[in-house]
Give the backbone structure.
Amino acid sequence: MPRAAAPFLGFARLLRRHAFAVAPEQATSFMQAVTLLGPRSMNDIREAALATLAPSPDRRIEFEAHFRAHFYADARPSIAGEEDEETRIKDDRGTREEESQDARQEKGGELSSAREQLSSRDFQRDADGLGAFRRRVASALPARRSFRTIRTRSRGTLDLRRSLSEIVSADGDIPSPQLRRRQTVPRKLLLLIDVSGSMKLHTADYLKLAHAAVQGADRAEVFTFGTRLTRITSALRVRDRDQALARAAVLVDDWDGGTRMGPTLLAFLSVPRFSAFARGAAVVILSDALERGDHADLETAMRRLSARAFRLSLATPLAGDPRFRPATAALRAILPVLDDLVDGSSLKSLTDFILSLARPAPSAEAIWKRVS
């Protein structure tokens, strides 16, 4: 196949990996259509893709996001329905993009808004007892069996190749058989932290927790979301917490702004490199889930996250109130796909919960139905 055809075939494969129904004949037709069109612009390629790969109407927005991520390579796919509300995605290597906007001064639940506000944040060191959490988190995470194997003296399967090698080196004598077993490795930990205005009182603690998790676990990933999506894992790998949080503060542009939880989570899932972090992972979302307007995007995103993750948990500071019930339309919609809906109002409750992720527990829906 000509080298020039590789990006177009790669786009068809990308769609198939994300459960789009793309037949081999459609991929061939796509490349033929591009050839016939010239093409003279990226819009010609886009029109050829729409005509031949035929995404369903309900997944058109996701299709457009994959197209931008694949062909423009700017890691900023548009997920929201309107251009003036597109979700920006920023990796650790990103740059500041727009000037800050004025924000309304609101209180309580009214701080949850879809309006974007760009600002900076400063973190100060204080005593919080996260040292013990950092030391324990790696061994406390759920484990899985790896496809890699290690040698063992018992409770393994016969390593035929090494056993035969031992027989040859021993001139035909039969020594003790060589055994191997599959390794057990911790699962990935993915933290998605809401930095919108309604979470302002808890953001600093959540970032400190995320830093301890990245320092203690080998495979921890951290993203922030509000009106934009930002990956801050590399910044949190700096051992000194003050320096790490200072770097994270520079990376994130949408501190204390509005909330577009559904579109930002869909943006996360639309980037293959990011959505791979969720596959088989323990995913913990730190948010109040106060989604303004239609919650259809949030429900769709949570269902897809649940399908990829080993365990999907929502930690909300609202659950720290004994009177709390998942009564909002958004929470009622996503409750069936959540494994956990827990208290996220304090560092102690969060660290205790994360350290218990390896232990089985009833589903969030079962627990909250009994409470209600």
